[in-house]
Amino acid sequence: MYEDLKGKTVIVTGASSGIGKAIALRFGQEKANVILNYRSNPDPIEEMIAEIEKAGGQAAGVQGDVSKEEDVKKLISAAHEQYGSLDIMVNNAGIENEVPSEKLSLEDWQKVIDVNLTGAFLGSREAISYMLEHDIKGSVINMSSVHEVIPWPHFVHYAASKGGVKLMTETLALEFAPKGIRVNNIGPGAIYTPINQEKFDDPKSRASVEAMIPMGYIGKPEQIASVAAWLASSEASYVTGITLFADGGMTKYPSFQGGQG
């Protein structure tokens, strides 16, 4: 646990399930004030608020589509109005769908880019603007992926969005380091979340993915949440502009693990 996170105000986009939910609950355990963003499903939010408050934190749910500028501005306003500050922005919301690249429609391409890349940009821009205005040495954490460096056939829009998040994060980190604002990425590997539950529940599919992970198992959302808490804490005060891969070694060319090549 990180004592300096107590009382800090955090926005987590895409907080109603999967990695976003785990991150939001972890900040609640750190006794932070958490704005829980969701796009369309408010059902888990009340239960999450109760769990965060039981842990000693505070929380409020805010509906919004991160690809829309006005909705992102609404998130920042909610943090200020509810808790009087914004110290940590976690741009977690993301989508993916599998389509062979030659059949990928412009609509599908744009939808993924709008949420994964433009959404992360809008969240970063608005959070940084607020931090500059209020002289806050804050932390912005973007959710990238191992696919910012690993090509992924049939997911060209997703891979392109995460490659964009990589250089966007590095550029913002360089630009705002003199102001004490840190900007970093988390790059999850294969994580057991609702979006891929069906795939990982199938023994054959699960085994094929585990074969690409040197540590040999699918990760949990809570393991990504631990990375987010560390990056936001003063323990990481000299860390900016990186992608911290939490992937069981997936980015380390696992086909060479046995000495092949």
UniProtKB/TrEMBL annotation:
EC number(s) stated in the UniProt entry for this protein: 1.1.1.47
UniProt catalytic activity: D-glucose + NAD(+) = D-glucono-1,5-lactone + NADH + H(+); D-glucose + NADP(+) = D-glucono-1,5-lactone + NADPH + H(+)
Transmembrane spans: none
CDD domains: GlcDH_SDR_c
GO MF term list: glucose 1-dehydrogenase [NAD(P)+] activity
SUPFAM superfamilies in the cross-refs: NAD(P)-binding Rossmann-fold domains
One Pfam entry name: adh_short_C2
Domain of life: Bacteria
Residue ranges of every copy of the Ketoreductase domain listed in the record: 8-189
EC class (word): oxidoreductase
Keywords, comma-separated and alphabetical: Oxidoreductase
Oligomer and partners: Homotetramer.
Family: Belongs to the short-chain dehydrogenases/reductases (SDR) family.
Full protein name: glucose 1-dehydrogenase [NAD(P)(+)]
Organism of provenance: Paenibacillus lemnae
